[in-house]
Structures are given as structure tokens and as C-alpha cells.
């Protein structure tokens, strides 16, 4: 049996651009030909050779010597290295000193996001899943650690936004199904109030009395007032974000373009440092440069401060070397969640082509299923289940219920109706916040 390092990259910090390294590897296979090192950043690894071999009867350990030259402009502050075969990997410089800041085996990095057997159905009009409704998300498990950058991909309607909102504590699920930094995302308000968990998504909207919910934010307020109005912000970080997003502090929010408004929104969302950041397609309105600079900023944040970032997007341009992990969702089910280097397709195809290939396969499968259903005389598409527990799941009765403003994600709501000739008022505040 060969120990696989597949998901156990080792992380090293602050090397010189060119370094001579000595590695010590341990595993249960003594085939010297198996020694290859894989690096997360473009570099050449020269002269990898085992110098000593020891065996304790069960494991073999090798000392490996090599020199690394990072490609021009690719020298990272932190890079990951994995041995193709062996589990244990230590690195020292040629004087035998262990590399500074090194974690010897990276699966010791703390888990920041843990999703276990997640099941979720959007609530009906009474705040409960309609009786008989098929869960939108089911059997969904995913674990991410400090410093992971996970790209969340999937077709329109696959459930990406829903998943990010659940992680952001906007929809209630069982406390054990979703843990962020060891806490329940929905029930533990400390996560968002401390700023440790940040959610950035959708358009910047607010609820305005008499005008309704979800009105685009368009007050005549200068960007400076908004950005400098947030208390307790590190001025250095603020200046860096203003520079990265190229914000003109004189912009007035009611006459800015969509992209300019988006830049201010992103800046506000990132002003306070976070440990877990959830991004729902926030770069749509950004121009190529702003997008690239923002992605670099986020990459640096995760590499230097261990932030975990989950980013749902349909735009893969410039993302090839950004994620450490890829999670693919289809119909609310996790199809794949892996470190990027363990996805075989990515060895031959670009990120975009790989995802295109998966989506094409998915749509062909859906077409096949619909065709079969048609042949069997069944409706091609599932009919959405509506109804409520109050009305006993009967859509005819449910239609008698009066929805005076409740919708998913809304706090203020009252449901009024008539049941067995008795008037009742129900609050569905217990469900969402
Ligand atoms: N508040 C809601 N109530 C009921 N169903 C909803 C609600 N919001 C979304 N849905 C449904 O849940 C499914 C998943 O939607 P979601 O927005 O999570 O998908 P997505 O993967 O983010 O899609 P896109 O790529 O288009 O943004 C869709 O079928 C959508 O109609």
C-alpha cells in the first residue's frame, strides 16, 4: 500500500526566490523512483535525489536534496509542496535548519468550514417546508481548512447562492449540519457580529419604507463618507482596499455606474478582516483590471492570514491559478469537492473547459431523463410542491392564505388567514433572519 499525500500538501513560508532544500520523507514504500515533489507555484525543482534511506521495519525514510527556482514573477510568500507518495514531509535549508513558519503536515490546519449531510428545503408560506417538497440540497458534505480558496461552480439554479446563504447564517438548518469556525452559522450571531464570517453577494440593496424591499442603494452620499464611516477599521487596510479597487472617494452613490457602486460595496465588505469569506458572484460588474487586482488581494489574504474563501462564480477568466479547491454542485448535490491539483481533467484542460465539460454532461443527462419521462407519459419537469402545514398541504387551501410581505430571508412577516372558520395570525420570524 502506498500512502497518498493527495490532500496533504505541506506549506512553507518566506523562502528566498531560489532555494536549496533538504526534505525528509517518510512512507511505506522504498522505491526510490517514486520521489517527485509537486509545488503549488510555478517553479523548477532540480536535482532531486535521495541521499540516505532508513527503515524501521514498517516505514522508510529518505533524505532528499534539491534546488528550487521559482518562475519569474511567481515567487510566493507561501507555497505548498507535496511528495507524490509519502505522507510525512519536512523541509530544511541546506544548513539543516527547519524552514521558518513551516507546518510539517498540513492536515493539522484548523477546519474552518464543515458541512455534514446538509439538507435544506426553502420554506413555504408558513415558514415550514411544504409537505412533500423535495429538498433543494441533500447529502451535502464539505470540509475546508484555514487558507483554502474554494471555487463553487454549477449551472444556474444548482443551489450555489442557497448554499452560501446557509453558510452565511441567512437560512436556518440543524446546528450540526453547518459549522463555521466551530459555530453554528445560523444560531451563533457572534460569527457575523465579530466580522469573522463575512458574506458578500448580490446587488447592494436595502429595504425602503413604502418603496418596498430590495431597492438598489442609490442615496446621494459620497463614497468617502461610507468608507470612512465604518468604525474600528485599520487605516492601512482601508487605504490598500481603496487602492486595489481604485475608488474615487468623491464618487456620489446615486450617480455612479454599476461597476463603481460594486467597488464601493466590495470595499465596505472587506474593510474588517474576516476568517471566512463567502463571495457570491461579486465580480460581474468589475472591469478586467479591478477583477484581477481584487482576486490577487483575496489570494494574499488567504495565504498570509489563513482566511478561507468560498467564491461562487460563472466567470473563470483569470481564475486558473486562484483556487486551491473546486466544488461542483448540480441540482443541490455536491458532485465533486477536491483540491485543484487532484482533478485529473485540469491536467489537460483549462478551468473553463473543464467546467464546460461537466456542465455539458449534466445537461445531456437531464435531457435524457426528460426524454425518458416523456416516453413514459410523465411530465418532463418536476412540478414544484406548494402548500403549507397550516393548510394541510392542500394548494387550494394554501391559496386562501394571505401573504402580506413574507419572503425567504425577510425578518418582518406575519401570516394571516382563516382555518376552520377561526381567524389566526402566525409569525414566521422564527424561521429566518
Ligand atoms: N427564496 C426562495 N424560495 C424558493 N425557492 C428558491 C428561493 N431562492 C432560490 N430558490 C430556488 O432554489 C434553486 C437554487 O437557487 P440558487 O439561487 O441557490 O442557485 P444558483 O446556483 O446560485 O444559481 P445562479 O447560478 O443562477 O445564481 C433555484 O431553483 C431557485 O428557483
From TrEMBL:
Pfam families: ABC_tran. One of its GO terms (molecular function) is ATP binding. Keywords: ATP-binding, Nucleotide-binding. Gene3D superfamilies: P-loop containing nucleotide triphosphate hydrolases. SUPFAM superfamilies: P-loop containing nucleoside triphosphate hydrolases (SSF52540). It comes from the Eukaryota. This is ABC transporter domain-containing protein. It comes from Riccia sorocarpa.
